[in-house]
Amino acid sequence: MELQTLTYIVVGLTFALYMGIAVWARASTTSEFYVAGKGIHPVQNGMATAADWMSAASFISMAGLIAFKGYDASVYLMGWTGGYVLLAMLLAPYLRKYGKFTVPEFIGDRFYSRTARIVAVICLIVASLTYVIGQMKGIGVAFSRFLEVPFEAGLFAGMAIVFFYAVLGGMKGVTYTQIAQYVVLIFAYTVPAVFISLQLTGNPIPQLGLGSTMADGSGVYLLDKLDLVLGDLGFAAYTEQKGGTLNMVLLTLSLMIGTAGLPHVIMRFFTVPKVRDARSSAGWALVFIALLYTTAPAVGAMARLNLMNTIQTGPVAAVDANLAYADKPQWFTNWEKTGLLKYEDKNGDGKIQYYNDKSQSFAETADKAGWKGNEMVKVDRDIMVLANPEIAKLPNWVIALVAAGGIAAALSTAAGLLLAIASSISHDLMKGVFKPEITEKQELLYSRIAMAGAVLVAGYFGLNPPGFAAQVVALAFGLAASSLFPALMMGIFVKRINNKGAVAGMLAGLGSTLIYIFLYKGILFIPGTAMLADNPGGWMMGISPGAFGAVGALINFAVAYAVSNATEEPPEHIQHMVEDIRVPAGAGGASDH
Amino acid sequence: MSSDKAQAYWKANLRLVLGCLAVWFVVSFLFGILLVDVLNAVQIGGYKLGFWFAQQGSIYTFVALVFFYASRMNKLDREFDVHED
Which of B56, B81, B83 to mutate to test the interface with A (most CBs of A within 10 A)? Predict the structure, then answer.
């Protein structure tokens, strides 16, 4: 069957499934809307958390990042999984014991301060909104590439689906659709990986294939081969470190504590029945995440090798060892149409030369062969996962599956983020601050309206992406790492922290991180207002703006501790509350409060 | 629960968390980044060991660590009689 028809069928089937679940899992109380009635099994919650967490970026961009950065991309692999260790041991069980609906609610209660709650709401909304813009864009891209409909039409279709199940079902609807979406996305991710691993190494398990020898009978290990192929063309070795060590450490740490501090992830642990379920559920979430995250390095390395071999078909600088542009495969043409792949025949020989023209040592070889510069002038990293099945010449149904998987990853994350925004507006701002007298029924209505509003705002930004859309992801993690995570952790582990310390700490962490990011990316990301050069030479001590969240968190800890110790102790009932959070006994079941 | 017992429970919990976080630090930051060149001298199949920890081994260890923590905490809860239901 033709690829496009197949893609319509596969994507259509998954959408029908999500709609069916939405109707089945309607929310009728605020508890169901915010925390799915606290009745989700820990394994199911783990699966939903995995889908919630793994976004269009994990599904589409990460393997591409690995393909082009090699070893240096390890920071994303360790950072985005290691955060779950922190979440499981430092936050999830205690926040579940406290048993409320939102993250700002805990911060407001623990630090007996409305200011703290509002600061937390602002951090949550900024972090979640910047994050959701990327998802909306991902949905539009997947639609326009695979279903060949205009970007806008794809975006509207995605919005309509999220609108339907998130407004109707709240956390309950979102949880069950996320479980279905996890199944779709993990299947879509691993099937092509298994095929490609088999082709290249003869080993069907990608995690093992990456460490195996090539299936061509040469006896050379795949990773050694990749280092060799890249080195021959002047690129840095795949398995070697290229960036600074301090920056790698801080970036990994920032991603870890940022992950643990992201509200849409934390609130998933409010949905399980018991404290011990929150602990094991974090483990299950990590199992389901690890399935994709340990496959991604194999996908990245194998895609890079396939790409290099497609273009450089024989020994470097030999005659007829480069792919002629006229013989280019169909996927090459398809991606050229999207503008994400660009070729320029610099030496006019009609062939494609793809090499590192910035390498000094390789310049002589290139010169002798009559090469006039790298002719693959643009290879967008994001196309690697999507183009991978085509590059490896896999059957059409696999390609259709990848489209459905990418959409599932984007939809599930978008829904989780929108829910975090909606619940903090209706529960923390409306019910908590402005209109405490509203009934549960009214609150439920408000939360549905907030949800609908959030979908529309996200859709608007998806259609009119601010120029800084790609850069604000660092901001989302920076905010979560420098403001929310330290406040939550100290709220549980350090009894002495009082309202003044917490607010001062959050503002100091947040402020320092914002200043550092703005210095390099421009004030409020306005082009031309950056004061320092955003490259390794310009970074203070080699620390990239994305890696500063860890430093911001340290500042938060230090300021909160110093201010708290200089001012009065927290009141006695707050100290009792902290003692109570620390023991599991007495946690409410599926009760309201 | 008496406050002595609560304190002992909390101390045991902190010890466990610190131990787990030490492992968390070693497999990722130490093996995956700081000592990566040293470990890369060892080769397991096609993987250099440091590279393997950075892209595979640390993640497997994280998974094991969370389940280990969860089961030890459940035991601790029962020992100190603070478990649910």
Answer: B56
